[in-house]
């Protein structure tokens, strides 16, 4: 017990983000205490303890400081009234480095400028830099499109910053979120004017802060908390909101893992009935490595299909739907399909090519006739991977 603890912002919206009493208790009772700092946290620590004392604490192994020079920014592109596209960027600046911030903080109002500059350099050498921003941004993009986001994480955040907000109100203001390119497409019907009025009434603040961007930044803070504690192999001391969000995040991850395992077991039991599972066959050494490699290399389309499956239905139901579904090409006879395809190509060639080139194009079209038509008619179904690639290895 009490091996290590990571200290993050306790009061994210305040100028002094760290609860100093909590920090002192952590330094007193834990073998290792790591403060995850940005400029505001570093400034507070120097003002509270003094740069020289911070050096003594670090050298004595009582305190560690890791500093984030960069930050995450969210670029918003409005599309329509309630729809916007959000992308995350890593902000780097030569004017906001640890070296420059320490120099400014240590030399400010210093009587001996040379000594203060030396102290800043000495303290800087004892602080390690962190660079979690890219991981945090990517992890946040993944979390925000999870089914549980709008039903669990979002209500908790809104209730914390806009007291009085109810689950019924949130449910009546639905949000639609999906990954699009490198960012997130978000359609939200949340009443931000109402939410911000409740925030101002509860906090006494004058400015509105609640927006889609603000909500995404709260998730960034959550993912950063989880990542810092994981990297440091430590307990976590953060804001009261983030403590609840982290607990929910871990629970959500465990639930999702268990659900996926259950779905995979059910899928194998139903679709590959009366057969042992792939896992059992591999562990018993029944599948040669060469065959296993072929299977893995052919699984791309099947894994992409799994990724597109709805979270609200079993994989088995969606598998059978794909099995029974008739595509346009399957409903069209081979003769009619040839006529449609090559009439269209021939018309295009007639408009754009000379007679000689048109004859050459016709010959080329004929050469690919069998290949192209065969591929279009056949299409791809997940059953092809199961029947042609997977099932034969389990016999």
Summarize the structure.
The protein has helices at residues 20-29, 39-49, 51-59, 98-107, 113-126, 133-144, 149-161, 167-171, 192-203, 212-232, 240-271, 278-283, 289-297, 300-308, 315-324, 328-331, 334-352, 355-378, 382-390, and strands spanning 4-7, 32-37, 64-68, 71-80, 83-91, 128-130, 175-180, 183-188, 235-237.
- Mass-distribution shape: globular
Query: What do the pLDDT scores average to?
Result: 83
Any idea what the radius of gyration is?
A: 29 Å
Structural class: alpha/beta
**Helix and strand run:** EHEHHEEEHHEHHHEEHHEHHHHHHHHH
Which strand-content bin applies to the residues?
5-15%
Residue share in helices? Answer: 55-70%
Q: What report would you give on this structure?
A:
The protein is an alpha/beta fold and 395 residues long. The chain is built from 19 helices and 9 strands. It has helices at 20-29, 39-49, 51-59, 98-107, 113-126, 133-144, 149-161, 167-171, 192-203, 212-232, 240-271, 278-283, 289-297, 300-308, 315-324, 328-331, 334-352, 355-378, 382-390; strands at 4-7, 32-37, 64-68, 71-80, 83-91, 128-130, 175-180, 183-188, 235-237. The strands form 2 sheets. The chain has a 5-stranded parallel β-sheet, sandwiched between helices. A 4-stranded antiparallel β-sheet has the order 4-5-8-7. The radius of gyration is 29 Å and the shape is globular. 20% of the residues are buried.
Key terms for this structure?
single chain, 395 residues, alpha/beta, 5-stranded parallel β-sheet, 4-stranded antiparallel β-sheet, 13% strand
């Amino acid at each position: 017990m009490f091996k290590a603890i990571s200290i993050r912002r306790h009061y994210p919206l305040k100028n002094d983000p760290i609860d100093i009493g909590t920090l002192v208790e952590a330094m007193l009772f834990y073998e290792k205490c790591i403060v995850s700092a940005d400029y505001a946290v570093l400034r507070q620590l120097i003002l509270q303890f003094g740069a020289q004392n911070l050096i003594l604490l670090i050298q004595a192994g009582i305190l560690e400081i890791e500093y984030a020079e960069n930050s995450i920014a969210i670029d918003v592109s409005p599309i329509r009234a309630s729809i916007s596209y959000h992308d995350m960027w890593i902000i780097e600046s030569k004017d906001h480095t640890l070296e420059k911030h320490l120099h400014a903080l240590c030399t400010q109002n210093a009587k001996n400028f040379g000594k203060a500059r030396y102290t800043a350099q000495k303290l800087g050498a004892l602080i390690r830099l962190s660079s979690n921003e890219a991981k945090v941004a990517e992890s946040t993009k993944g979390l925000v499109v999870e089914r549980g986001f709008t039903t669990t994480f979002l209500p908790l955040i809104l209730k914390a910053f806009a007291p009085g907000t109810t689950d019924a109100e949130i449910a009546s203001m639905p949000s639609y979120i999906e990954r699009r390119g490198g960012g997130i497409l978000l359609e939200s019907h949340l009443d931000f004017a109402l939410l911000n009025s409740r925030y101002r009434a509860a906090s006494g603040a004058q400015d509105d802060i609640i927006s889609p961007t603000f909500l995404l930044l709260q998730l960034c803070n959550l993912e950063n908390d989880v990542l810092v504690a994981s990297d440091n192999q430590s307990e976590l001391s953060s804001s009261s909101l983030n403590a609840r969000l982290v607990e929910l995040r871990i629970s959500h991850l465990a639930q999702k893992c268990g659900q996926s395992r259950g779905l995979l077991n059910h899928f194998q039991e139903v679709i590959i009935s009366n057969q042992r599972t792939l896992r059992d066959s591999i562990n018993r050494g029944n599948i040669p490595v060469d065959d296993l490699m072929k299977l893995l290399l052919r699984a791309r389309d099947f894994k992409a299909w799994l990724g597109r499956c709805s979270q609200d239905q079993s994989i088995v139901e969606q598998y059978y739907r794909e099995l029974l579904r008739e595509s346009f090409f399957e409903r069209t006879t081979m003769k009619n399909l040839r006529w449609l395809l090559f009439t269209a190509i021939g018309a295009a060639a007639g408009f754009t090519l000379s007679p000689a080139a048109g004859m050459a194009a016709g010959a080329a079209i004929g050469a690919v006739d069998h290949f192209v038509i065969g591929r279009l008619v056949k299409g791809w179904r997940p059953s092809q991977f199961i029947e042609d690639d997977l099932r034969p290895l389990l016999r």
